[in-house]
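User: ok so my PI wants both of these folded by tonight, can you help

Assistant: No problem, let's get them done. Here's the first:
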Amino acid sequence: MVSVKDNDEAAHPANGVTGMPSWLPRAFLLAAATIAGLFAAFWILQRMRGLLTILLVSLFLAFAIEPAVNWLARHRIRRGPATGLVFLGLVAVVAAFGWTLGALLVDEVGNLVQNTPEYADHVVEWINRTFDTELSGTDIQKYATDWSATLEGYLSGLAGNVWGIGTAAVGAIFQGLGILLFTFYFAADGPRFRHAVCSLLPPRQQRHVLRAWDIAVEKTGGYIYSRGLLALVSTLAHYVMLRILDLPSAFALALWVGVVSQFIPTVGTYLAGALPVIVALVHGPTTALWILGFIVLYQQFENYVLQPRITATTLDMHPAVAFGAVLAGAALLGATGALLAIPVTATVQAFSSAFIRRYDVETDDEQPAS
């Protein structure tokens, strides 16, 4: 028989020390392993951030060109050559844009250098007349010499860091090539890639993934289509105005305004309008005021008349939501996040609207009387 004293000693060991539960060491090990795994995952993500950004940009570029690739594929062109044709078209457009703006830059710099003495005299006269000073061309030349020496020293410092500049340039080239390569494979092997991803999921989740994929392609392609159409209209409108005002390089300036204002979020409008105003200011203040006024009026027309009609069927998003998405994307991934924010947000918004049930709001007038 077990005595009452033995039972008390078993329940309450000597010195009041209780035994450690058997599950506690395993819980400590599991917690330590979880924390170590989280730190390892965070370290890996930090090291692979560049690759993940390249993959994300490539995926959405593939979404953007996939409608064109699908259209060519429906016309009995294999997806590989169809993707190559779309790529050639995009490269031709980008090259033409760069060539046109390069010619504009060369012309305007040449005009500026040629007319610098005349501009300097006008500036000296304006300063003397406005601030009641007695500056002369010799003073301006002295200041220009000092600034030139400062600029030369700065350029010499940059030349001394040629290794760092070259490394950054090579890295940017490799990133660009990586984006092009992944974009080509994502677009050319789109159906096979979707099949490979969905084969890892159960049938119910496969339907959700395919639906999200189709929405992403539709919204991203619609975003590019709508922006391209708005850029075309903006280019034509500004070209007509610049030709009326007889401003040189009218087509290049109009192309700059059309492309930059549509494809650079938030600040694109200001960057686009600044260049033609500066060029017009070199040729005359009155012309610059006319250009500035037309840009402001056209932006109002585009925001309230043109854009709602073009984007109604392709990218239905409130301007405040778009602005917030751009700020959030810039905070997360910088310029890349700002460029991808709008199509990503439109995709998430369209996908969530398919699964979120909405109800009619009853007002006080609609409630039955008690």
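One down. Here's the second:
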Amino acid sequence: MYIRNTSLKMLLGLCCAVCLCMLSSCVDEDEYADNPRGNFEALWSAVDEHYCFFDYKKKAYGLDWDEVHERYSRQIDDRMTSVQLFEVLGNMLGELRDGHVNMYASWDVARYWSWHEDYPSNVSDTLLSRYLGTDYRIASGLRYRILDDNIGYVRCPSFANPMGEGNLDDVMMYLATCNALIVDIRDNGGGLVTSAEQLAARFTNEETLVGYMQHKTGKGRNDFSKMAEQRLKPSKGLRWQKRVAVLTNRAVYSAANEFVKYMKCFPNVIVVGDRTGGGAGMPFSSELPNGWSVRFSACPMYDKDGVSTEFGIDPDYNVGLSQDDLLKGEDTIIERARHLLAE
């Protein structure tokens, strides 16, 4: 994830520099041997010194990283194969319950996806195609059209690529005559925070406090900087002045989770759908002695009230896809948003 505003960019630059310096020394091949035991200790220590959610996860579900070390250490044997080691280390990382935690070998990626796989998807490509039709417009990765009740609909499936300000001006101009707007980010797994900021900046007329951020200042599990403000400035381009509904589901993650965090700060915005998946830690990468790369959350972010959004953000209106509506060819979440915007 990447932040565009100057003050946030400076803060993130400092955060990245500090974290990368620490991460580059945490798996020193001179300190840890390239064998199963050495790679295990290198990985556990890197996470121990630089992961940012230990206290939060301990309170949430009782995570004890020392106990994790003891339990998984008993599974390490120098006679084990690389595949067996990968499985054990991947399972250990899964104890963090963090979608930003991954380990990469040439044949596989260790990941934790239960944050969305264990929940209803609450989105249907077939239904989305019905609402978009075939004559929708496309700009900067956005698909948009005007629905038959004069409500604008914008489908934003990813923040993986930069958004052009001119493109966003054209989108806002085309939808300007609509009575209200739906921004559907269901299944948006994130990408660039800059893109999330660019889009959110179209819905505020004043600089707004949208959250806070910290970075690690030492190897201790509680060694963090003071909370620094995240402030979002309004776009210099065309801005939306009417009501907005943001549609969410559990697969909304990382930069998309940040987008929801921003939008909930604005008075004309409602969030409709399911709780988001979360992902409130800025991820950084490192490498084990055997060459496997690892990334994990190192800089925590919070909402405007100082509350972590690592495990997601609740909608204003909790709505799921109804099987009856699905059979009728209707998207329950879109229809509920249209009803709320029309009130």
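The radius of gyration is 22 Å. The first strand starts at residue 102 and ends at 104. Good luck tonight!
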